[in-house]
Structures are given as C-alpha cells and as structure tokens.
Write a structure and sequence with these properties.
Strand content: under 5%
Order of helices and strands: HHH
Structural class: mainly alpha
Number of strands: 0
Helix content: over 70%
C-alpha cells in the first residue's frame, strides 16, 4: 500500500520533465533562439493534460469513500 503512495508522489513530481509537445510544435519552437517560449508552451501542455486526470481521480476517490461507508 505504501508503494502506491510513493509511486504517485514520485509521478507527480516527475511530470515537470515530461515533454508534452507534438511534433509540429516542437519543430517550430526548436528553431527559436532563446527557447523561452518553448518551455512555456511545454509547461502549458503538461498543465492542461494533468487537470482532467486530477478531476477524474478526485471524483473516483469521493465515490469510493461514499461506497466504503
């Protein structure tokens, strides 16, 4: 049981290093000199990807707690 929690915590902190760009976005942004906007777009993609998972898992946890009682 502890392994699941440790895995989820590690997974939460590793998501910052995941490259979430599609091939076309990466090709356009790699041609830029400063790479500042590439990092910003990549962070935005990861942020937008994480929100639905957080909402779904929160709802599932609430349902689980309701049925457990």
């Amino acid at each position: 049981m502890k392994f699941k929690y440790i895995f989820l915590i590690v997974l939460f902190f590793v998501t910052d290093s995941i490259l979430g760009q599609c091939a076309m976005c990466r090709a356009v942004l790699e041609s830029e000199e400063g790479q500042v906007s590439a990092k910003g777009i990549n962070d935005g993609i990861v942020y937008l990807m994480a929100i639905p998972y957080i909402v779904v898992f929160s709802i599932a946890f609430i349902i689980y707690r309701k049925f457990k009682k």
